[in-house]
From TrEMBL, chain B:
Name of the protein in question: DUF998 domain-containing protein
UniProt keyword annotations, A-Z: Membrane, Transmembrane, Transmembrane helix
Domain of life per record: Bacteria
Organism classification: Bacteria, Bacillati, Actinomycetota, Actinomycetes, Catenulisporales
Transmembrane regions listed in the UniProt entry: 95-113, 134-152, 158-180, 201-218, 230-249
Length: 99, 255
């Protein structure tokens, strides 16, 4: 996965707790400044659910929120740690201190 | 009809049932700039049936088996077109392998991925009935064509010959389509999907057989008379099918 990968962004958006599709996209917009297209968002959710990284909760007000599974948390943490290591090494190379 | 609803109809039913309402609401709010993305996402989902929302892991394996079997039949049709264009592909003159041997190898893979009938009388009867219903039309067409060819004996370049050739390919394609539908739509109460290890090995065998066929076909693309367009198209088709087999294998490993 990459930092701008739709699946990583969805996992990041769900890190604070369960959200439904529209709220996931709003969280991604807050994080990156732009929203995912609806096709990309629900395609990513389908893949993540198939991999067992997110799971659906019961329907609330005609929307079904999704949440991270324990495996999803573990995968996201691993990805973010790997990205942080790469970012830190790149910034050190540029002589810039991480913000 | 609303364009978003039209685009949603392009998605697999399992996806529509799970995400259809939410996707429709979000796509309607996003407007027409979301349409190309919706189209691309629908095409992507059809290429990856294993990831569609499923009730169980066994349903995903059944979908993988059905998709791999459909690709096997497509490979067979493309290979049949290739050998009809260049019968040397079935010879062993200058090659370690020929297309017929690759087909036998792929048959082994197809047997490995095939869902097995449950050992009950009801299940076997239901499966037999379904098979007979689905294959009746192509079998009747083939039989009728054999009788007509036997009695009419059309000349090699006549209009009747062209019609018989078209009917032959239509019958093959219809038979392949119906066979794929049997495996894809048969009820889980009648068959059990292959176990994960057998499924992975079977798809790997099919991908290897398809890649080898592509290689053999590629070797006859350039001839003394220049580029052979049909061989080039056959090779390209086989390479695309190989990539598709590999993507199904990756999905099975990930899900």
């Amino acid at each position: 996965m990459q930092a701008n990968d739709a699946q990583t962004l969805v996992l990041c958006a769900l890190s604070k707790g369960p959200l439904h599709g529209y709220a996931i996209n709003a969280a991604i917009e807050e994080l990156t400044g732009s929203r995912l297209g609806p096709g990309s968002l629900y395609g990513a959710l389908t893949r993540l659910e198939a991999k067992g990284l997110v799971e659906s909760l019961d329907e609330v007000d005609r929307a079904r929120p999704v949440q991270l599974t324990p495996e999803g948390r573990r995968v996201l943490e691993g990805e973010l740690r790997a990205m942080a290591r790469v970012a830190a090494a790149g910034l050190r190379g540029l002589g810039v201190s991480p913000a | 009809m609303n364009p978003v609803r039209l685009l949603l109809r392009l998605y697999p039913a399992a996806f529509r049932e799970r995400w259809g309402a939410a996707l429709e609401a979000d796509a309607s709010a996003a407007g027409r700039r979301s349409w190309p993305g919706l189209l691309a996402s629908a095409a992507d989902l059809w290429l990856h049936p294993v990831i569609w929302p499923a009730a169980s892991a066994s349903q995903r394996r059944h979908r993988a088996a059905a998709a791999a079997f459909t690709l096997t039949l497509a490979t067979w049709l493309v290979g049949r077109a290739g050998t009809a264009n260049d019968p040397r592909l079935t010879w062993r003159a200058h090659r370690a392998l020929n297309v017929a041997e690759c087909a036998a190898f792929m048959l082994l893979g197809a047997i490995m991925i095939m869902p097995l009938p449950r050992p009950t009388r009801q299940a076997v009867t239901a499966l037999l009935r379904r098979t007979l219903q689905a294959l009746a039309a192509p079998a009747v067409l083939l039989f009728a064509e054999l009788i007509l060819v036997h009695f009419l004996r059309p000349a090699a370049h006549s209009a009747a010959h062209l019609a018989f050739t078209a009917l032959y390919w239509f019958t093959l394609a219809l038979g392949a389509l119906q066979a794929a539908r049997i495996v894809g739509t048969v009820s889980s109460s009648a068959v059990t999907p292959p176990r994960p290890a057998r499924l992975r090995l079977g798809i790997a065998v099919l991908a290897t057989g398809c890649a080898l066929t592509a290689w053999i076909s590629l070797s006859s693309t350039v001839t003394g008379h220049g580029l052979d367009a049909v061989s080039a198209a056959t090779s390209g088709g086989m390479l695309m099918l190989t990539a598709w087999f590999l993507s199904i294998l990756r999905d099975v490993n990930e899900c």
